[in-house]
Amino acid sequence: MKLNHLNLCVNDLSKAKDFFETYFDFKFLEQKGKALIVMSDSDEFILVLSDPKAFKDGEDEPYPKAFHFGFLVESSNEVDQVYNRLVEGGIEIDKKPYKMRGSSYGFYFMALNELLIEVSCLNYRNGKKISTE
């Protein structure tokens, strides 16, 4: 079984589309009116961006505090590259990449109306410890 899509509710479809194209290499597939945008990445994962106000009785509701999603990259060098690209693009990030949870390296940041996003790499694969450098 493969998880193939995620629907994220956002306040500004255009801004969210630009964000995922610019910083995470998603490609635009289609837009359905003012309600949603469909995007895909190189692994064919589908990201749906939707504006809850465009649906019947739609209201903005905040995500729970612990809600977040993450991007996994291959190495600590790639984590640093993503971090630098975000900072150079004017995205505010409170803390530089760091070793977290004893098995990964990465960082968290808030974007798109307080969505918590993680970028990290793991130092284990297939049950074996590996170098992330």
Task: Provide an overview of this structure.
The protein is an alpha+beta fold and 133 residues long. Helix content is 19%, strand content 37%. It contains two helices and ten strands. The strands form three sheets. The protein has a four-stranded mixed beta sheet with strand order 1-4-3-2, with helices on one face. A four-stranded mixed beta sheet has the order 5-8-7-6, covered by helices on one side. Strand 3 (36-40) and strand 4 (46-50) form a beta hairpin. The longest helix is centred in the middle third of the chain and has 13 residues, at 76-88.
Which helices and strands appear, and what pairs or packs with what?
Elements: E1 5-9, H1 13-24, E2 27-32, E3 36-40, E4 46-50, E5 68-72, H2 76-88, E6 98-100, E7 104-111, E8 115-122, E9 124-125, E10 128-129
Parallel strand pairs: 1-4, 5-8
Antiparallel strand pairs: 2-3, 3-4, 6-7, 7-8, 9-10
The CATH topology label of the largest domain is 2,3-Dihydroxybiphenyl 1,2-Dioxygenase, domain 1
Biggest sheet, spatial arrangement of strands: 1-4-3-2
**Distance between the ends:** 31 Å
Strand content: 35-45%
What share of the residues lie within helices? 10-25%
Number of E-type strands = 10
Shape: globular
- Unreliable parts: none
CATH superfamily annotation of the largest domain: 2,3-Dihydroxybiphenyl 1,2-Dioxygenase, domain 1
Largest sheet: 4 strands, mixed
Counting structural domains, the number is 2
Provide a count of the helices: 2
* Alpha-beta content class: alpha+beta
CATH architecture of the largest domain: Roll
Radius of gyration: 16 Å
What do the pLDDT scores average to? 88
Quickly name the level 1 CATH class of the largest domain: Alpha Beta
Order of helices and strands: EHEEEEHEEEEE
